[in-house]
Amino acid sequence: MRLRHYGWFLPMLLAGRLPAQADARPAVAVLELRFDGQHATVPEPGDTAVAQAATRKLLATLLASDDVTVVDSARVAAAVTAAEADGNPCDNACAVAVARSLGARWVVTGTVTKTSNLVWILTAELFDVAAGRPILADGYELKGDARVMGPAGAHVFAQRVERVLAERQAAAR
């Protein structure tokens, strides 16, 4: 009968995580990946959907992680919209300020660039909000169907973010 009162504790204990540790995961704000088609040889109406799909995969991968807590994307979007009210797009300094205002320790930002129908480039960075500098910067050349490769590249970057933050958490203990 007593196990019923402590039933919430058993899954956490089996997973090797106690309640205090569950809250110790670093908070990450993820900004919507921006689409850049300025240098595209053939711009097409559905191009922006590639960046949106990549963002969804980036978020899904990080949300499934046991190593990070993702700041609610609606809160991030609202903060970015407010920051862009002056008409300027949210750059890296803005991304860091947005993350800081939301209480995040880290922020992810990036761009999906179309160069041709077969070649796209995903660039993404993970910033340390306290230091205001990037700690991980990756670029992926995405060849093939961008609707598949964009999310695949974002998934790989999200896995690298997970590893880096897990290593930093372990070193801080």
Put the structure in a nutshell.
The chain has 173 residues and is α/β, with parallel strands linked by helices.
Q: Would you tell me the structural class of the helices and strands? A: alpha/beta
Number of strands: 6
| Helix content bin | 40-55%
Which percent band covers the strand fraction?
A: 15-25%
| Rg, Å, rounded | 18 Å
Number of helices: 7
Q: What is the fold named in CATH at topology level? A: Rossmann fold
Mean pLDDT: 88
Please name the CATH architecture. 3-Layer(aba) Sandwich
- Low-pLDDT parts are 1-22
Specify the CATH class: Alpha Beta
Q: How many structural domains?
A: 1
Morphology call = globular
* Terminal Cα span: 36 Å
Q: Would you kindly provide a written description of the structure presented here, covering whatever features stand out?
A:
Helices cover 46% and strands 23% of the residues. By secondary structure, it is of the alpha/beta class. It has one domain: Rossmann fold. Strands 1, 2, 3, 4, 5 and 6 form a 6-stranded mixed sheet that branches. A hairpin with a 4-residue loop joins β5 (119-128) and β6. α5 (73-83) crosses α6. The two termini are 36 Å apart. Mean pLDDT is 88; it is low at 1-22.
